[in-house]
Amino acid sequence: MSRTNLISTNRKFTIVIFLVMLFLVLIPLLAFVIVYAFPNLAFGDYLINNIVYVFISTLVLFYFVIARINYYTLDIDSYVIDIKIYRSVIGAFKPKDYIDISHDMFVDFSFFNRSFSFNKTLMIKIENDSGKRIVKRFNLSFLSENEERRISKVLKKIIAKNS
């Protein structure tokens, strides 16, 4: 029996992206502190005149930091497929979405892109003991083409083994 092993995660990359986006959220707040500390700066007039735009862009960035950046851990061994999706800020210790199935239950998979998002969606079709098919979707943030090929190769090998 051939060994099927794959461990894939984007945790380090997601932490870096989170820190960059957090810095971008904190810049307008720091700018307002500087404006109130030094009210005669020309930058302060510009900031006060465009406060609506600064506030909206800060909220949008904050939304992406909180809601849209996930990290995943995908662990496939010779018997089990284990996928866990975590939020980067809220619920970083408890999986938002997870699956832990045996290779026998795995039927099919596909990847598709999300528009206006950093995520690619991995759709997995599962067949339970009673023959009912279930579709499970996982948003994988910042999934590279190379990583997608590695995951596809292992999952295709499992499908071929099950046939």
Write structural notes for this entry.
By secondary structure, the protein is of the alpha+beta class. The chain has one domain: PH-domain like. Helices cover 44% and strands 31% of the residues. The strands form two sheets. It has a four-stranded antiparallel sheet. Helix 1 (11-37) crosses helix 2 (42-49) and helix 1 (11-37) runs antiparallel to helix 3. The longest helix is centred in the first third of the chain and has 27 residues, at 11-37. The two termini are 15 Å apart. The model has no long low-confidence stretch (mean pLDDT 83).
Helix and strand layout, with pairings?
Elements: E1 6-9, H1 11-37, H2 42-49, H3 51-68, E2 70-76, E3 80-87, E4 97-102, E5 106-113, E6 119-127, E7 133-141, H4 145-162
Antiparallel strand pairs: 1-2, 2-3, 3-4, 5-6, 6-7
Helix pairs in contact: 1-2, 1-3
CATH architecture: Roll
* SSE order, one letter for each helix or strand: EHHHEEEEEEH
Low-confidence stretches: none
Indicate the mean pLDDT. Answer: 83
Number of domains: 1
Strand portion: 25-35%
What is the fold-level CATH name, i.e. the topology?
A: PH-domain like
- What fraction, in percent, of the residue positions are helical? 40-55%
Shape: elongated
For the largest beta sheet, what order do the strands appear in spatially?
Answer: 1-2-3-4
